[in-house]
Amino acid sequence: MAEPSTPAVQPVPPQRGLFQVSSARRSPPERTKARTQDSRVHNRSLVLATLYHQGPMSRSELARDSGLTAPTISALVAELESDGLVTDIGPRKGSRPGKPANLVRIEDAVNLVVLDLSHSDRFTGAVLDLRGEVVGRAEIPLGGALGAAATELVLRLAAELLALAPRQVLGIGVGSPGIIDDTGTVRHAAHLEWSQLPLAERLTERFGIPAYVGNDINVAALAVLHFRSTQAQNLMVVAIEHGVGAGLVVGGELVEGEQFAAGEIGHITVDEDGEPCVCGRRGCLDLLIDAAHLRARLARTAEAGRPAVRTAAGRALGAVLAPILSALNLNEVVLTGPAELVEGEFLKAVTATARARTLPPISASLTIRSLAGDADLILLGGACLVLSAELGVL
Amino acid sequence: MAEPSTPAVQPVPPQRGLFQVSSARRSPPERTKARTQDSRVHNRSLVLATLYHQGPMSRSELARDSGLTAPTISALVAELESDGLVTDIGPRKGSRPGKPANLVRIEDAVNLVVLDLSHSDRFTGAVLDLRGEVVGRAEIPLGGALGAAATELVLRLAAELLALAPRQVLGIGVGSPGIIDDTGTVRHAAHLEWSQLPLAERLTERFGIPAYVGNDINVAALAVLHFRSTQAQNLMVVAIEHGVGAGLVVGGELVEGEQFAAGEIGHITVDEDGEPCVCGRRGCLDLLIDAAHLRARLARTAEAGRPAVRTAAGRALGAVLAPILSALNLNEVVLTGPAELVEGEFLKAVTATARARTLPPISASLTIRSLAGDADLILLGGACLVLSAELGVL
DNA sequence: CGTCTTAAGTAAAGACGTCTTAGAAACCCG
DNA sequence: CGGGTTTCTAAGACGTCTTTACTTAAGACG
């Protein structure tokens, strides 16, 4: 009798971005029902994705391209326009028969805030537009902060970037070291002494903006897939800075692993009689190719012997890669880390060894290259998290 | 003017099973539009899958379980019932308050025909029901047939099995050696001298029944995933018979690879100074652990030395697995092949080596087991292909 | 033994989204 | 200037799910 016509309290999903499209792929193989309005959000992001990847086009072209009918496209575009995500930029230049088309373009009315927590001495971050172009940057020195203090620095840096963003922020994307589950909880990050830290939740709560957190190298693999790759749907990124890690994309999807620990290749045994490692074993890959270890090894080697050290390191990685590349039929490998270590003999040896140890079908189409100079890979990876979860655009 | 009201020729998709649900995942990253009726087929297979995995249940339970509303479920069940896929088996036994529920059960009104082309001397096949239970078997000796002659034998065997099937056949599933793309074309199969053979198409054309072809070990991995596994969404099957091959499931999905050659691990170099291999390299994994090679090696070794040979072979496989398991964070490995080779020292050495060469997070939850006795794995894998493409049930 | 409560299932109407059909607008071409 | 072409929108049809209300059937309870 209090509220006669109000239908009780609407059970609205708790946190949800303005334009959120996918429910961020929580937990693996759950079949979900399809309501009739799901097709709307699907088609909406189909239109958005088409515009995103192919640039401005007319409604008719969108219709042909997407398989939807013209009226539907018109309705979707109108909706996207009223959300401020696209604009009608008027008639196309040049003359053709028929009524001239009005082009529709993705509106850069939104920004992304992205964070890279992979460095050992500082956290860096940036404000990006939808294209991944940097609009602003900020960083914050870590100063040895650990645990909760480090978390506080993440929040501070995020706040700073949010203040910097000229437009509405669609979401926050973070690439962090450690093992991170699909809810954006850092299960374990040794360097930062984090454990079971629900970082995405913290960020979302604090700023009221959807946040997504992924492993730094994993999101770098996403960045390569979407921003730096040719056509490959299967690729691997290997980083040799601050420990050896990898990120894998298989069939266009990031590999998470059964315990969200995919890509942890640093402590694979390479030589059972090798040096002892902090992990308690001997001859780990990490001892041979991690930047710090490799630098130390180079430093205590005479000038003349250094190329051989680099080559030996590259061979070790190549030998580890060979089974992975073969098993997954993966053609594209990207190495990152300090350029002076990654490029040159090391890269050459990795490539040669991987080629020599795999069958022609694999080795022939294999590309191993360095993106060592690409400092923004992890930031772009954070953007990938946001763009796919919020706009379904990637 | 010929046909006034008929809307021209309807562009019906050419081949399509009676109840087909997914369009068989042709080519990877193609965004598709969502029509309103797509939700119908989705929800239909959601209901079917629930019944398939959880056994008979009432419409109300289906509604709670699926998140759909009761009226929708009623409508879907009615539709499935008129298709002969489910039956109402009357009220549940035992008494509870409220109106007694009528249970709905999947009807075994359909059969599957599955073929295993992996043996070198014969093709085997079976008729299965929806549960994967064998209803009938047949096989056909290969007699050295190659190329088109071997293809003809496949068709003969399929015809024989179709004649054997007591009920309507939902589809044909084939596990074949070689590299097979996502249209069911055998791109290359050395033993059978097949190349660019559109086997699925041939079968579909000949019998008018949807057919699916996959690599033998790959589909075996599907079989393990759906019929022999616990909960793992990431697993690997390694076969050491007739060459060394693997099938990988990552995130619940079969890994195909960029050139559909995923799992080809036989010619990874294990020992750069090893024996020469037919592939032109030296020290391939195949030379150490393939059944034929391993048997030969055992035969020319004195009784006392044989365990050491088995152990050495196991170690080699373990060393190859370690990088793969680490990179993918994979916990479950299944070995198949001749039981007397796979089990015992070999399996022990594989496990020990893989454990010793991976970090605790991986090695602790790692299970490596043998399904060497399980002769029907590839047949079941063929069933997986049909069940997921036609019913969306897996 | 009759009434209440609980649960299962169905029927009718409403909401949402796409498609079909039809038409208006704007341009080129001859 | 009229016909052809292309773009885009308007109105209604259709399919699918949901909401709401009702019927059916059993146990619980006094």
TrEMBL record, chains A, B:
Cited InterPro entries: ATPase_NBD, HTH_MarR-typ, ROK, ROK_cs, WH-like_DNA-bd_sf, WH_DNA-bd_sf
Pfam family membership, one: MarR
Basic and acidic residues composition-biased segments: 27-40
Highest taxon of source: Bacteria
Cited SUPFAM superfamilies: Actin-like ATPase domain, Winged helix' DNA-binding domain
Residues annotated as domain HTH marR-type: 46-87
UniProt GO MF annotations: DNA-binding transcription factor activity
Region of interest (Disordered), residue spans: 1-40
Similarity field: Belongs to the ROK (NagC/XylR) family.
PANTHER family cross-referenced by the UniProt entry: BIFUNCTIONAL UDP-N-ACETYLGLUCOSAMINE 2-EPIMERASE_N-ACETYLMANNOSAMINE KINASE (PTHR18964:SF149), ROK (REPRESSOR, ORF, KINASE) FAMILY (PTHR18964)
Protein name: ROK family transcriptional regulator
UniProt organism field: Streptomyces beijiangensis
